[in-house]
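Much of our argument rests on the idea that a fold can be written as discrete symbols. The record that follows shows the chain in one-letter code together with its fold in token form.
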Amino acid sequence: MTDYLLEMRGIVKQFDGVRALDGIDIRIRPGECVGLCGENGAGKSTLMKVLSAVYPHGSWDGEILWDGAPLRAHSIRETEAAGIIIIHQELMLVPELTVAENIFLGNELTLPGGRMDYAAMNRRAAELLAELNIHDVNVALPVKQYGGGHQQLIEIAKALNKNARLLILDEPSSSLTAAEIQVLLAILRKLKAKGVTCVYISHKLDEVAAICDTITVIRDGQHIATTPMAEMSIERIIAQMVGREMNQLYPERRHTPGEVIFEARNVSCYDADNPGRKRVDDISFSLRKGEILGIAGLVGAGRTELVSALFGAYPGRSEAEVWLNGKKVDTRSPLKAIRAGLAMVPEDRKQHGIVPDLSVGHNMTLATLQEYARATRIDQQAELTTIRREIGNVKLKTASPFLPITGLSGGNQQKAVLSKMLLTKPQILILDEPTRGVDVGAKFEIYQLMFELAAQGVSIIMVSSELAEVLGISDRVLVVGEGRLRGDFVNDNLSQETVLAAAIT
């Protein structure tokens, strides 16, 4: 009889001759919650795809023992039958199907003759949600009726319906509010108490510290350490992840803003579904050359809507006057905005930032493809030279520029999107949640790049839900609340309390 529910021994996974996993060993006890930590590209998601048979047995080297017996799964269905369930960072729900239909997708209950037993599925779905202390969801409504927090919990209910013994959560809180994160952590504590084993992957190390019994750190595809959380601190986790002590989370600021070069006047956005409601209500602000302007506010305050309207990407009706270098410019579409000197890295990189079917390199040059056009063909050598240079500039980890961009970690996808927009040589760079789902090492690199751009005279508008990030990076902070401008503060020892007070008053 083994003491471990799961053992992964000497796991090696290669892509085009490059070792993404290089002999990793992991052991997990029943009922244990293990925090799997590492930088973007360290191999965390690849390791879990090996475990869950996204990469089937035979496509990797090593051995997996499940309850002491070899596990040689060739499909996700086989690992799910064993009780290994993975909840991916991008939720696998079908928006148009009901909550109950999503929970039973692939495991439907049927009546004699093969018809769906909707009554039984609805009843069991409600019971599963009740076990998670969720009582405000109608299981007969389409899942798209509910926000990210509820959808994350519906995914957990779906996993419980498959009798999960090991629940793998990959960045489960990346799109949740602070209140929703506390609900999620409370539910995971209840599941632990019932004996469900968890692997928790997150760049939010405060959550890892709060929920995990053990911390396993991997770096560059290698196992670095497995340590009880009681013997760890967030600082030690970071040091193991990046291979060095990080004495400060933010680089030293070495730029001085110049004169005002950008103005947004009377920006208003109307709700796409309810045109009588304003999401942004008559906001005006200015921006200096080489200035980093942070935009803070609570979820739903109108921050993303504001910057989307400036870039011509707001889906509903919007109004805005945009002035650059003393001239009024037309930014009513993203193409016009780019031509005017603006660029934007969107909040949802999967939906609006990347083209999944294209390679890493082709995603990077997508916004500047005309520069490589030679009559009826593309100068592929010139394009490749640019791609290789930019991969080095933004420290993007990829075995090849020709790999599909979906094969990269979230942080490296973000760097590719950032590089794509920087190739347009913008005067104004808008970054909406630029470090969401990005590890501390990659965050530091993005911050350094932002400071370098500011020193070169690029003006940056950054939306972030992390107040510490806003205060650590910004020269000035705008506070938005309920679609209105609630405060405009120079960041000179500005406190989180001052910003929060402005956001909620």
User: Anything to note?
Assistant: The chain has three domains: 6-242, 248-341+426-505, 355-425.
